[in-house]
UniProtKB/TrEMBL annotation:
Taxonomy, superkingdom: Bacteria
Chain ranges of the RsmI HTH domain: 246-289
Pfam families noted in UniProt: RsmI_C, TP_methylase
Catalytic activity, EC: 2.1.1.198
Protein name as catalogued: Ribosomal RNA small subunit methyltransferase I
Keywords recorded for this protein, A-Z: Cytoplasm, Methyltransferase, rRNA processing, S-adenosyl-L-methionine, Transferase
UniProt record similarity statement: Belongs to the methyltransferase superfamily. RsmI family.
One GO cellular component term noted in the UniProt record for this chain: cytoplasm
Lineage of the organism: Bacteria, Pseudomonadati, Pseudomonadota, Alphaproteobacteria, Rhodobacterales
Family matches, as InterPro entries: 4pyrrol_Mease, 4pyrrol_Methylase_sf, 4pyrrole_Mease_sub1, 4pyrrole_Mease_sub2, rRNA_ssu_MeTfrase_I, RsmI_HTH
Organism this protein belongs to: Rhodobaculum claviforme
Length: 293
């Protein structure tokens, strides 16, 4: 179903009926958007992964609760609270849900609420903003044309290794959340499974006072964190696996296909550029295929 775009908001225009998913700061309180503040000021019902965090954010920005209900909605109580929020939506009320930090549904319990609201035909709006995933990707210096958020790795050793094996060959930059207590162990597993020479960035406490970004290979980051007592939120960004160059048989097959259509010189140039192989190696193969010595 195609949904209309969310209406522009102002202090005089209350949020439209429906579920509004609010991105909240991951550190600096001023990173919240004006639209999110408008929704917090005007929504009929407020819900949050952590109501203490949301109350504090509203106090910082001078937004009064004003007698409106504010419900905690997290992994441990979602099944019980979700029907109350859906009932409010059924009454054409506006419900604002905020993550503890960052964008809802990204490693966050809001996923189940959004799915339930959509299933019952309610409108779901996004008020985009801060995201630890995109903030880490931005400062990592790693390719951003294709990336995969892989969430939190499993804790048990066997499951963690299987998780790493599944992601090993993914042709995208990988973004992972991890506890600071387990990040050194994770780096060790990734060095074993993915290879220690893959480029990576360990981002800690993004947008906060003690923000830190360490860049290097998985092996150097593992060494750097061996004796560190890391604290705070950690996001690990790892470059994609390098593509294996074509073997001799593949290169010769490409040459054979091109030699029937273009000159030897042009075929060599095209195949060398496509494969990244040395031009001399491709030229010698082309000579053999053409029956020359």
């Amino acid at each position: 179903m195609r949904e209309d775009p969310a209406p522009a908001l102002s202090a005089a225009a209350p949020p439209a009926p429906g579920l509004h998913l609010l991105a909240t700061p991951i550190g600096a309180a001023r990173d919240i958007t004006l639209r999110a503040l408008d929704i917090l000021a005007g929504a009929d019902v407020l819900a949050a992964e952590d109501t203490r965090t949301l109350r504090r954010l509203m106090e910082i920005h001078g937004i009064a609760l004003g007698g409106r209900p504010m419900l905690a909605y997290h992994d441990h109580n979602a099944a019980g609270v979700r029907p109350r929020l859906l009932a409010a939506l059924a009454q054409d009320r506006s419900v604002a849900y905020a993550s503890e930090a960052g964008t809802p549904l990204v490693a966050d319990p809001g996923y189940g609420l959004a799915r339930a609201a959509i299933a019952e035909g309610h409108r779901v709006w996004a008020a985009p903003g801060p995201s630890a995933v995109l903030a880490a990707l931005t400062v990592s210096g790693l390719p951003s044309d294709r990336f995969l958020f892989a969430g939190f790795p499993p804790v048990p050793a066997g499951a963690r290794r299987r998780w790493a094996e599944e992601l090993k060959a993914v042709p995208a930059t990988l973004i992972v959340y991890e506890s600071p207590r387990r990040v050194h162990d994770l780096l060790g597993v990734l060095c074993e499974v993915w290879g220690g020479d893959r480029a990576a960035a360990l981002c800690r406490e993004l947008t906060k006072r003690f923000e830190e970004v360490r860049r290097g290979t998985l092996a150097t980051l593992a060494d750097d964190t061996a004796h560190d007592d890391l604290r705070g939120e950690v996001v690990l960004v790892v470059d994609r696996a390098a593509e294996a160059p074509p073997d001799a048989a593949q290169m010769e097959a490409m040459l054979t296909a091109r030699l029937g259509d273009v000159s030897l010189k042009l075929a060599v140039a095209e195949v060398a550029e496509a494969t990244g192989l040395p031009r001399r190696e491709v030229y010698q193969a082309a000579l053999r295929l053409a029956g020359r010595t």
